[in-house]
Amino acid sequence: MQVFKYGVDTLTVAKAIDLSTGKLIGIIDETAKQKINQSQQYVNEIVANNDTVYGINTGFGILSNKKISEEDTKTLQYKILQSHSVGVGNPIPKQVAKLMLITKLQALAQGFSGVQLTTLERILWHIDNDVIPVVPEKGSVGASGDLAPLAHLFLPLIGLGEVFYKDKVIKTGELFLKENLSPIRLGPKEGLALINGTQFILSYAIADVQRMHNCLEVADIIGAMSLEALQGTKAPFDERLHQLRPFKGNQLVAQRLRLLLQDSEIMNSHEDCDRVQDPYSLRCMPQVHGASRNAWLHLKELTEIELNAVTDNPIIFNADDTISGGNFHGQPLALPLDYCCFAAAELGNISDRRCYLLLEGKFGLPMLLMSEVGLNSGFMIPQYTTAALVTENKTLCFPASADSIPTSLGQEDHVSMGSISGRKLYQILDNLEYILAIELMSACQAIEFRRPLKSSALLETAHDFVRQTVSFANEDRIFADDINQIKKIISDFSFMSHVEEKQELNKGFEEFEL
Questions:
Q1: Which of 54, 165, 426, 434 is catalytic?
Q2: Is 165 a catalytic residue?
């Protein structure tokens, strides 16, 4: 199995995800160990020389002018984890918490933070053994780092807090008994280095990049199925048209739609019809889906910069050269995360419009996608759900980064709120997966009214994969069951991977891959 060297190798979104799922093994190699040990030695020299350096022998935030004695510098680090553990709400997803461990280890292992090697080895133990701290979802303002969630993340190092252990949540004290572990004795600056940083925002960004990529890929497939069912035209996806307005995302979506619709009997059956133009939700898929892809690409690029950044404070270059700066400020990710909230919500908005078109009873389709309606409501009511989810997503689109509330008695007077941006995008994507599931359910139903004509090979593959889970509906039933089944195959990535396996739909646009 391939090995990743923390603090030495370059981390990408794909590698971070592979580390979180065990597909990639991470180590702290000798190069990283030397840098880590040297950085810790610099901190020890600062303490021994009684030099005043923020967070090593001073208080924090507004208390930065309070000098701490040498004998209390270690106690200070223990107390910072306690005092900053003020998170509230439900636990964040276990995968996101694990990504926080991975991304923090990558930052600290670069050797600018003064952390002990034994501390980093304990973090690596948690990753390797899938023993993941419980982190509450709320409490970070996204500047001076994600203080509260990171404090909760590292409580288990000192024997406090809770962890996910073998599918159960247990107290860290119980974990220590089961695994014969002891608390870490934190050295000077370590507590501050652990809680200062953007790893909560960053880990949500990683998960959001992965999930949004899946939704973008799936939206093109489902949109192509809806277009076929509605006997739309593929003319608006002509490569020449998009060369005249060469946004990369637009060009990619147009290419994907051309390939998804290639050699379709359904498309070929109405080439000579008298329809002039399709509604925007069909005709403008390259422009709308493409704009969302451009936003996604920007987030991915900035996320991968942050994945390899050092974001705690102060930064230790050597014993005589430390800088107290602002690398912990979450603004560089807060803005693109908010932008992607709009981009993801718009994918749902246009999908809902296609759901509505499929119900109108036009272009040879039965009204409400059922032969006998009246006694049956057909597919009328699932579109109510897409309408509700689209509106909910709109309410989640207020940019958290547009607001800032001073903290620490004004010392930390501008914050990013990027933690809220990351969580909102995660919620929007959850709603989007349901919206796309309802469009996919409706499109599969509609395509069967075009039989015996066949769709393209790729779209037939998509249709058949859905039909392994959800059957054609001759009459009303509890459609929530169908929606949840289809949502599952979207959210677990199986639908996208099944349809696109070994395909080259994105050839020439490799930057849009994970």
A1: 54
A2: no
